[in-house]
TrEMBL record:
One Gene Ontology term from the biological process aspect of the record: transmembrane transport
Major localisation: membrane
CDD domains (UniProt xref): TM_PBP2
Domain ABC transmembrane type-1 per the UniProt entry, residue ranges: 112-321
Membrane topology: Multi-pass membrane protein
Domain of life: Bacteria
SUPFAM superfamilies (alphabetical): MetI-like
Subcellular location: Cell membrane
Name under which the protein is recorded: Peptide/nickel transport system permease protein
This protein's GO CC annotations: plasma membrane
Keywords: Cell membrane, Membrane, Transmembrane, Transmembrane helix, Transport
Family: Belongs to the binding-protein-dependent transport system permease family.
Pfam family, one: BPD_transp_1_N
Protein backbone atom coordinates (compact mmCIF):
# COMPACT_ATOMS: atom_id res chain seq x y z
CA UNK A 1 0.00 0.00 0.00
CA UNK A 2 2.85 2.39 0.78
CA UNK A 3 4.45 1.69 -2.59
CA UNK A 4 1.13 2.28 -4.34
CA UNK A 5 0.59 5.57 -2.49
CA UNK A 6 4.06 6.83 -3.37
CA UNK A 7 3.56 5.82 -6.99
CA UNK A 8 0.24 7.65 -7.18
CA UNK A 9 1.75 10.78 -5.62
CA UNK A 10 4.62 10.72 -8.12
CA UNK A 11 2.21 10.27 -11.04
CA UNK A 12 0.11 13.15 -9.70
CA UNK A 13 2.97 15.60 -10.36
CA UNK A 14 2.84 15.48 -14.21
CA UNK A 15 -0.96 15.38 -13.99
CA UNK A 16 -1.05 18.60 -11.99
CA UNK A 17 1.51 20.23 -14.28
CA UNK A 18 -0.64 19.40 -17.29
CA UNK A 19 -3.75 20.73 -15.50
CA UNK A 20 -1.96 23.99 -14.68
CA UNK A 21 -0.97 24.35 -18.35
CA UNK A 22 -4.54 23.74 -19.51
CA UNK A 23 -5.92 26.29 -17.03
CA UNK A 24 -3.33 28.85 -18.12
CA UNK A 25 -4.08 28.37 -21.81
CA UNK A 26 -7.84 28.55 -21.26
CA UNK A 27 -7.40 31.84 -19.40
CA UNK A 28 -5.23 33.13 -22.24
CA UNK A 29 -7.93 32.30 -24.79
CA UNK A 30 -10.76 33.71 -22.66
CA UNK A 31 -12.15 37.10 -23.72
CA UNK A 32 -11.42 40.14 -21.60
CA UNK A 33 -8.65 42.62 -21.05
CA UNK A 34 -6.99 43.34 -17.67
CA UNK A 35 -6.77 46.97 -18.74
CA UNK A 36 -10.55 47.22 -19.25
CA UNK A 37 -11.01 48.50 -15.68
CA UNK A 38 -8.59 51.38 -16.27
CA UNK A 39 -10.41 54.74 -16.77
CA UNK A 40 -10.68 56.01 -20.35
CA UNK A 41 -8.86 59.18 -19.36
CA UNK A 42 -5.60 57.25 -18.95
CA UNK A 43 -3.41 57.80 -22.05
CA UNK A 44 -2.66 54.78 -24.25
CA UNK A 45 1.09 54.96 -23.58
CA UNK A 46 0.43 54.78 -19.83
CA UNK A 47 -1.83 51.77 -20.36
CA UNK A 48 0.93 50.10 -22.33
CA UNK A 49 3.42 50.71 -19.53
CA UNK A 50 0.94 49.24 -17.05
CA UNK A 51 0.50 46.20 -19.30
CA UNK A 52 4.26 45.69 -19.43
CA UNK A 53 4.48 46.09 -15.66
CA UNK A 54 1.98 43.25 -15.27
CA UNK A 55 4.14 41.05 -17.48
CA UNK A 56 1.63 40.94 -20.33
CA UNK A 57 4.22 41.97 -22.88
CA UNK A 58 6.10 38.68 -22.58
CA UNK A 59 5.34 35.56 -24.63
CA UNK A 60 2.80 33.10 -23.27
CA UNK A 61 5.25 30.29 -22.53
CA UNK A 62 7.58 32.66 -20.64
CA UNK A 63 4.73 33.85 -18.42
CA UNK A 64 3.62 30.28 -17.78
CA UNK A 65 7.08 29.13 -16.71
CA UNK A 66 7.44 32.25 -14.53
CA UNK A 67 4.17 31.38 -12.80
CA UNK A 68 5.35 27.80 -12.27
CA UNK A 69 8.65 28.97 -10.76
CA UNK A 70 6.92 31.46 -8.49
CA UNK A 71 4.18 29.05 -7.37
CA UNK A 72 6.18 25.83 -6.94
CA UNK A 73 9.49 27.29 -5.77
CA UNK A 74 9.15 30.82 -4.41
CA UNK A 75 5.88 30.34 -2.52
CA UNK A 76 7.11 27.23 -0.62
CA UNK A 77 10.25 29.16 0.27
CA UNK A 78 8.12 32.03 1.59
CA UNK A 79 6.16 29.53 3.69
CA UNK A 80 9.38 28.05 5.10
CA UNK A 81 10.62 31.57 5.90
CA UNK A 82 7.39 32.31 7.77
CA UNK A 83 7.52 28.97 9.60
CA UNK A 84 11.16 28.97 10.70
CA UNK A 85 12.14 32.63 10.46
CA UNK A 86 14.66 32.04 7.66
CA UNK A 87 15.29 34.17 4.57
CA UNK A 88 15.24 31.67 1.71
CA UNK A 89 12.97 33.71 -0.56
CA UNK A 90 15.20 36.76 -0.22
CA UNK A 91 12.74 39.23 -1.75
CA UNK A 92 12.10 37.11 -4.86
CA UNK A 93 9.17 38.04 -7.08
CA UNK A 94 6.00 36.21 -6.02
CA UNK A 95 2.73 35.56 -7.86
CA UNK A 96 1.05 38.96 -7.69
CA UNK A 97 -2.65 39.67 -7.94
CA UNK A 98 -3.46 42.33 -10.51
CA UNK A 99 -6.58 43.27 -8.60
CA UNK A 100 -5.14 43.58 -5.08
CA UNK A 101 -1.52 44.49 -6.04
CA UNK A 102 -0.29 42.00 -3.43
CA UNK A 103 0.89 38.37 -3.43
CA UNK A 104 -1.89 35.97 -4.37
CA UNK A 105 -1.14 33.49 -1.58
CA UNK A 106 -1.34 36.25 1.05
CA UNK A 107 -4.87 37.04 -0.10
CA UNK A 108 -5.76 33.34 -0.22
CA UNK A 109 -4.50 32.81 3.35
CA UNK A 110 -6.64 35.76 4.51
CA UNK A 111 -9.77 34.34 2.89
CA UNK A 112 -9.18 30.67 3.74
CA UNK A 113 -10.52 30.73 7.36
CA UNK A 114 -13.92 32.05 6.23
CA UNK A 115 -14.28 29.27 3.68
CA UNK A 116 -13.16 26.60 6.14
CA UNK A 117 -15.62 27.82 8.77
CA UNK A 118 -18.51 27.29 6.36
CA UNK A 119 -17.34 24.43 4.13
CA UNK A 120 -15.75 22.19 6.78
CA UNK A 121 -18.65 22.61 9.18
CA UNK A 122 -21.26 21.97 6.48
CA UNK A 123 -19.51 18.80 5.34
CA UNK A 124 -19.18 17.42 8.86
CA UNK A 125 -22.82 18.22 9.62
CA UNK A 126 -23.97 16.73 6.31
CA UNK A 127 -22.07 13.47 6.86
CA UNK A 128 -23.23 13.11 10.48
CA UNK A 129 -26.86 13.53 9.41
CA UNK A 130 -26.60 11.41 6.25
CA UNK A 131 -25.18 8.23 7.79
CA UNK A 132 -27.97 7.58 10.35
CA UNK A 133 -30.65 8.43 7.76
CA UNK A 134 -29.15 6.02 5.24
CA UNK A 135 -28.74 3.23 7.81
CA UNK A 136 -32.25 3.47 9.22
CA UNK A 137 -33.86 3.91 5.79
CA UNK A 138 -32.23 0.69 4.57
CA UNK A 139 -33.13 -1.24 7.71
CA UNK A 140 -36.75 -0.04 7.54
CA UNK A 141 -37.06 -0.27 3.77
CA UNK A 142 -40.38 1.03 2.32
CA UNK A 143 -41.42 2.36 5.72
CA UNK A 144 -42.85 5.85 6.15
CA UNK A 145 -39.43 7.08 7.33
CA UNK A 146 -37.75 5.56 4.26
CA UNK A 147 -40.25 7.11 1.86
CA UNK A 148 -40.08 10.51 3.54
CA UNK A 149 -36.28 10.36 3.62
CA UNK A 150 -36.15 9.37 -0.05
CA UNK A 151 -38.40 12.28 -1.02
CA UNK A 152 -36.48 14.86 1.05
CA UNK A 153 -33.05 13.69 -0.12
CA UNK A 154 -34.13 13.69 -3.77
CA UNK A 155 -35.45 17.23 -3.42
CA UNK A 156 -32.29 18.31 -1.61
CA UNK A 157 -30.06 16.78 -4.28
CA UNK A 158 -32.09 18.30 -7.13
CA UNK A 159 -32.45 21.87 -5.83
CA UNK A 160 -29.40 23.99 -6.77
CA UNK A 161 -27.67 26.08 -4.06
CA UNK A 162 -28.52 29.40 -5.72
CA UNK A 163 -32.23 28.58 -5.27
CA UNK A 164 -32.12 27.00 -1.81
CA UNK A 165 -29.84 29.80 -0.58
CA UNK A 166 -32.28 32.52 -1.61
CA UNK A 167 -35.17 30.46 -0.24
CA UNK A 168 -33.71 30.13 3.27
CA UNK A 169 -32.85 33.85 3.28
CA UNK A 170 -36.46 34.73 2.46
CA UNK A 171 -37.84 32.37 5.11
CA UNK A 172 -35.44 32.67 8.04
CA UNK A 173 -34.12 36.19 7.55
CA UNK A 174 -36.79 38.24 5.76
CA UNK A 175 -40.01 36.59 6.97
CA UNK A 176 -39.05 35.27 10.42
CA UNK A 177 -36.08 37.52 11.19
CA UNK A 178 -34.27 34.76 13.06
CA UNK A 179 -30.94 34.76 11.24
CA UNK A 180 -28.72 37.40 9.59
CA UNK A 181 -28.81 37.33 5.80
CA UNK A 182 -25.24 38.63 5.34
CA UNK A 183 -22.16 36.91 6.75
CA UNK A 184 -20.05 39.32 8.82
CA UNK A 185 -16.46 38.41 7.93
CA UNK A 186 -15.05 41.06 10.29
CA UNK A 187 -16.50 39.33 13.35
CA UNK A 188 -13.87 38.17 15.87
CA UNK A 189 -14.90 35.52 18.40
CA UNK A 190 -13.73 36.71 21.81
CA UNK A 191 -16.57 35.75 24.16
CA UNK A 192 -19.82 33.81 24.34
CA UNK A 193 -21.85 36.59 22.68
CA UNK A 194 -19.60 36.78 19.61
CA UNK A 195 -19.42 32.97 19.46
CA UNK A 196 -23.22 32.81 19.43
CA UNK A 197 -23.28 35.49 16.72
CA UNK A 198 -20.80 33.45 14.67
CA UNK A 199 -22.97 30.34 14.98
CA UNK A 200 -26.10 32.28 14.00
CA UNK A 201 -24.57 33.65 10.83
CA UNK A 202 -23.18 30.21 9.90
CA UNK A 203 -26.53 28.42 10.14
CA UNK A 204 -27.94 29.28 6.70
CA UNK A 205 -24.82 28.79 4.52
CA UNK A 206 -24.02 25.57 6.39
CA UNK A 207 -27.63 24.44 5.96
CA UNK A 208 -27.54 25.01 2.19
CA UNK A 209 -24.24 23.19 1.67
CA UNK A 210 -25.07 20.37 4.09
CA UNK A 211 -28.38 19.72 2.32
CA UNK A 212 -26.71 18.43 -0.83
CA UNK A 213 -24.08 16.51 1.12
CA UNK A 214 -26.77 14.79 3.20
CA UNK A 215 -28.85 13.96 0.13
CA UNK A 216 -25.97 12.39 -1.77
CA UNK A 217 -24.29 10.41 1.00
CA UNK A 218 -27.53 9.14 2.55
CA UNK A 219 -28.57 7.64 -0.80
CA UNK A 220 -25.20 5.88 -1.13
CA UNK A 221 -25.42 4.70 2.48
CA UNK A 222 -28.92 3.31 1.97
CA UNK A 223 -28.00 1.50 -1.25
CA UNK A 224 -24.87 -0.01 0.29
CA UNK A 225 -26.75 -1.16 3.40
CA UNK A 226 -29.50 -2.77 1.31
CA UNK A 227 -26.90 -4.63 -0.72
CA UNK A 228 -25.24 -6.04 2.40
CA UNK A 229 -28.41 -6.83 4.35
CA UNK A 230 -29.25 -9.55 1.82
CA UNK A 231 -25.84 -11.23 1.93
CA UNK A 232 -25.30 -14.77 3.24
CA UNK A 233 -23.04 -13.66 6.09
CA UNK A 234 -25.93 -11.65 7.58
CA UNK A 235 -28.19 -14.72 7.66
CA UNK A 236 -25.31 -16.71 9.18
CA UNK A 237 -24.79 -14.10 11.90
CA UNK A 238 -28.48 -14.11 12.75
CA UNK A 239 -28.53 -17.92 12.79
CA UNK A 240 -25.71 -17.89 15.34
CA UNK A 241 -27.96 -15.96 17.70
CA UNK A 242 -26.30 -12.55 17.48
CA UNK A 243 -28.50 -9.62 18.41
CA UNK A 244 -30.02 -7.54 15.63
CA UNK A 245 -28.08 -4.49 16.83
CA UNK A 246 -24.78 -6.39 16.57
CA UNK A 247 -25.63 -7.76 13.11
CA UNK A 248 -26.61 -4.38 11.68
CA UNK A 249 -24.27 -1.95 13.46
CA UNK A 250 -21.16 -4.15 13.44
CA UNK A 251 -21.17 -6.62 10.57
CA UNK A 252 -23.42 -4.91 8.00
CA UNK A 253 -22.34 -1.34 8.74
CA UNK A 254 -18.64 -2.18 8.55
CA UNK A 255 -18.92 -3.66 5.06
CA UNK A 256 -21.37 -0.99 3.91
CA UNK A 257 -19.00 1.82 4.86
CA UNK A 258 -16.32 0.68 2.37
CA UNK A 259 -17.83 2.36 -0.73
CA UNK A 260 -19.37 5.20 1.30
CA UNK A 261 -16.00 6.27 2.71
CA UNK A 262 -14.66 6.70 -0.81
CA UNK A 263 -17.71 8.78 -1.74
CA UNK A 264 -17.13 10.98 1.31
CA UNK A 265 -13.48 11.49 0.33
CA UNK A 266 -14.37 12.33 -3.28
CA UNK A 267 -17.06 14.75 -2.10
CA UNK A 268 -14.63 17.13 -0.36
CA UNK A 269 -13.58 18.96 -3.58
CA UNK A 270 -17.22 19.08 -4.70
CA UNK A 271 -18.30 20.91 -1.55
CA UNK A 272 -15.61 23.54 -2.19
CA UNK A 273 -17.06 24.00 -5.67
CA UNK A 274 -20.54 24.42 -4.26
CA UNK A 275 -19.22 26.98 -1.79
CA UNK A 276 -18.41 29.32 -4.70
CA UNK A 277 -22.12 29.96 -5.29
CA UNK A 278 -23.10 29.85 -1.62
CA UNK A 279 -20.47 32.40 -0.63
CA UNK A 280 -21.79 34.78 -3.26
CA UNK A 281 -25.35 34.45 -1.96
CA UNK A 282 -24.52 34.98 1.72
CA UNK A 283 -21.64 37.43 1.09
CA UNK A 284 -19.09 35.17 2.75
CA UNK A 285 -15.71 36.75 2.08
CA UNK A 286 -14.02 33.43 1.29
CA UNK A 287 -12.26 31.72 -1.58
CA UNK A 288 -15.43 31.28 -3.62
CA UNK A 289 -16.22 34.98 -3.62
CA UNK A 290 -12.53 35.71 -4.23
CA UNK A 291 -12.60 33.56 -7.38
CA UNK A 292 -15.75 35.23 -8.71
CA UNK A 293 -14.42 38.75 -8.15
CA UNK A 294 -11.09 37.78 -9.74
CA UNK A 295 -12.90 36.51 -12.83
CA UNK A 296 -14.91 39.71 -13.06
CA UNK A 297 -11.76 41.83 -12.74
CA UNK A 298 -9.75 39.68 -15.21
CA UNK A 299 -7.23 38.98 -12.45
CA UNK A 300 -5.62 36.05 -14.28
CA UNK A 301 -2.93 35.18 -11.67
CA UNK A 302 -5.59 34.95 -8.96
CA UNK A 303 -7.96 32.89 -11.11
CA UNK A 304 -5.14 30.58 -12.22
CA UNK A 305 -3.88 30.01 -8.68
CA UNK A 306 -7.25 29.44 -6.99
CA UNK A 307 -8.49 27.17 -9.80
CA UNK A 308 -5.28 25.17 -9.66
CA UNK A 309 -5.65 24.76 -5.90
CA UNK A 310 -9.12 23.29 -6.46
CA UNK A 311 -7.59 20.93 -9.04
CA UNK A 312 -4.99 19.86 -6.46
CA UNK A 313 -7.81 19.05 -4.03
CA UNK A 314 -9.55 16.89 -6.64
CA UNK A 315 -6.39 14.94 -7.52
CA UNK A 316 -5.36 14.58 -3.85
CA UNK A 317 -8.71 13.30 -2.62
CA UNK A 318 -8.97 10.88 -5.54
CA UNK A 319 -5.75 9.34 -4.24
CA UNK A 320 -7.11 9.40 -0.68
CA UNK A 321 -10.28 7.62 -1.83
CA UNK A 322 -8.32 4.89 -3.61
CA UNK A 323 -6.04 4.36 -0.61
CA UNK A 324 -8.95 4.24 1.84
CA UNK A 325 -10.75 1.71 -0.34
CA UNK A 326 -7.71 -0.54 -0.20
CA UNK A 327 -7.29 -0.07 3.54
CA UNK A 328 -10.93 -0.80 4.39
CA UNK A 329 -11.38 -3.74 2.02
CA UNK A 330 -8.75 -6.47 2.61
CA UNK A 331 -9.70 -8.06 -0.72
CA UNK A 332 -8.22 -5.08 -2.56
CA UNK A 333 -4.47 -5.25 -3.13
CA UNK A 334 -2.58 -2.61 -5.12
CA UNK A 335 0.38 -4.69 -6.24
Amino acid sequence: MLTYTIRRLVLAIPTLLFISLVIFLLLELAPGDPMAEVPLTVPPEVKEKMRLALGLGEPTHIRFFKWMWQFFVIEPMVFIDWLFGTDLAGGEQRVLSWQFRSPVMDVVVQRMPQTLWVVAMSYVVGVLIALPIGIYSAYRQYSLFDQAGTFITMVGYSVPPFFSGVLVIVIFSVQLGWLPSIYDTTLVVVDWATFKQQLMQMVMPVMVLALQTTAQISRFMRASMLDNLNQDYVRTARAKGLSEMTVVMVHVLRNSMIPVITVIALGVPQIFGGAIITEQIFKVNGLGQLLITAIQANDLPMVHTVTFMLAVLIVLFNIVADVLYGVLDPRIRYD
